[in-house]
């Protein structure tokens, strides 16, 4: 891995390089995505089935687009019992974590007849997108469905691209059923997002779409925002490890590669004040990479978006980490909890050398759908909050309104909104005031 002494100039260059991976910079694909969305919006199922045949090679119809109970039962027969047990343990951890995020409605009353509050309501129907293709992501199935289920969403619709034989991966189906999905449809890509956003004869329209996908899915989600809500525009995976001289270079190297293997656009960065650690990690990255099955992907990822950044101090390292605002941040220092208190920008923070990033991907419980491309400066992980909406509650007695009437009318008059003032005044006049 390249080792660089950090400066303001090269930090800005690195940030610009990382941002090139953002879906916002893939304008060449936008026209294609726009065309797909328009066709599905206009022709519904007809376009949906055509695109599924074109892109996935599957012959999907109104009769087989919905995954049947028989297919789910067969999936349970296909899946390894040990894997099913692991899915259930992971599901328990994820559910337990998200249960603590639940919000409840509240009301605050006052002696003068004023009642104020907030009503928390789950979304009615949400859509979860699950990628298909080269890899299988049952963990993403759990991470998207469980918080929606905990929030109390009435109907959870999942879409995922089918194989050429019209099948869906058994592990994906089992994870979805275990998590509490309502229905699963065999459709993916931009056309799947369009179906969820606009609705077709076969696929119902949803209120919100969550879940990761390729560039076409990401751009489609961005384009339909407004017709529906979305979680975020997810970019390629990324990890930043903040370490000092006490860190184990083998652990650091292994964890960097755990993200670099995702795809060629993944980013893996070490920030450290120890040049000795930097050199050791670089050596171990080379050694581990040569023996890993996804060697070619890792090498391209490291070449384009892998960095070892050397600083003058731990405080400077913390500043660099906050500026990059990585999706995953591991802290491997002598006092990791003290460092954690100084981190402002990160999607998920892994504290200590035995809290490796795959814990968050699969098992610990916190959601692994995280802000990428520096958006951890203002976005949060997917949570129960993403599947609820809040309504304000306001109730004033006659006496309470009359007490505030003059103040309200003065505000309305200052804004030259006479009908606002009249709305209050007519009530005063009704009482002869």
Automatic annotation (TrEMBL):
Pathway: Amino-acid biosynthesis; L-histidine biosynthesis; L-histidine from 5-phospho-alpha-D-ribose 1-diphosphate: step 9/9. Its EC number is 1.1.1.23. The keyword rRNA-binding does not apply. InterPro entries: Ald_DH/histidinol_DH, Histidinol_DH_CS, Histidinol_DH_monofunct, Hstdl_DH. GO terms for molecular function: histidinol dehydrogenase activity. Coiled coil: none annotated. It catalyses: L-histidinol + 2 NAD(+) + H2O = L-histidine + 2 NADH + 3 H(+). Its cofactor is Zn(2+). NAD(+) binds at residues 129, 191, 214. Transmembrane segments: none annotated. The active site is at 327 (proton acceptor), 328 (proton acceptor). Zn(2+) binds at residues 259, 262, 361, 420. Keywords: Amino-acid biosynthesis, Histidine biosynthesis, Metal-binding, NAD, Oxidoreductase, Zinc. Substrate binds at residues 237, 259, 262, 328, 361, 415, 420. It holds the Pfam family Histidinol_dh. Belongs to the histidinol dehydrogenase family. Catalyzes the sequential NAD-dependent oxidations of L-histidinol to L-histidinaldehyde and then to L-histidine. HAMAP family: HisD. This is Histidinol dehydrogenase. It comes from Aequitasia blattaphilus.
């Amino acid at each position: 891995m390249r080792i660089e002494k950090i400066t303001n100039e090269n930090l800005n260059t690195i940030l610009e390089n990382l941002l090139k991976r953002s879906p916002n910079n893939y304008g060449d694909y936008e026209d294609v995505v726009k065309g797909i969305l328009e066709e599905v919006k206009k022709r519904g199922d007809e376009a949906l089935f055509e695109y599924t045949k074109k892109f996935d090679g599957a012959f999907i119809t109104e009769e087989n687009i919905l995954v049947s109970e028989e297919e789910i039962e067969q999936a349970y027969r296909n899946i390894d019992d040990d894997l099913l047990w692991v899915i259930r343990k992971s599901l328990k951890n994820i559910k337990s974590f998200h249960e603590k995020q639940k919000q409840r409605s509240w009301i605050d009353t006052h002696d003068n007849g004023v009642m104020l509050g907030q009503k928390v309501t789950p979304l009615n129907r949400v859509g979860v997108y699950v990628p298909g293709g080269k890899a299988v992501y049952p963990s993403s199935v759990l991470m998207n469905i469980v918080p929606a289920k905990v929030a109390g969403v009435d109907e959870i619709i999942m879409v995922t691209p089918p194989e050429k034989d019209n099948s869906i991966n058994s592990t994906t189906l089992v994870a979805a059923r275990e998590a509490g999905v309502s229905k699963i449809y065999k459709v993916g890509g931009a056309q799947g997002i369009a179906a969820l956003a606009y609705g077709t004869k076969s696929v119902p329209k949803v209120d919100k779409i969550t879940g990761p996908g390729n560039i076409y899915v990401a751009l489609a989600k961005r384009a339909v925002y407004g017709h529906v809500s979305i979680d975020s525009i997810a970019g390629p995976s990324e990890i930043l490890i903040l370490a000092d001289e006490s860190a184990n270079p083998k652990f650091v190297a292994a964890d960097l590669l755990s993200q670099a293997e995702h795809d060629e656009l993944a980013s893996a960065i070490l920030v450290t004040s120890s040049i000795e650690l930097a050199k050791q990690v670089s050596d171990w990255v080379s050694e581990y990479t040569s023996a890993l099955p996804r060697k070619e992907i890792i090498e391209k990822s490291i070449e384009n978006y892998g960095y070892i950044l050397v600083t003058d101090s731990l405080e400077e390292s913390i500043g660099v980490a906050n500026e990059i605002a990585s999706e995953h941040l591991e802290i491997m220092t002598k006092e990791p909890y003290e460092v954690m208190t100084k981190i402002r920008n990160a999607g998920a923070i892994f504290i200590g050398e035995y809290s490796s990033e795959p814990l968050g991907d699969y098992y610990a419980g916190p959601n692994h759908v995280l802000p990428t491309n520096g958006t951890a400066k203002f976005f949060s992980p997917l949570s129960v909050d993403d599947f609820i909406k809040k309504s304000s509650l306001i109730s004033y007695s006659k006496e309470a309104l009359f007490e505030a009437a003059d103040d309200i009318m003065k505000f309305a008059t200052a804004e030259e909104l006479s009908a606002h003032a009249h709305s209050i005044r007519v009530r005063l006049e009704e009482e002869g005031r």
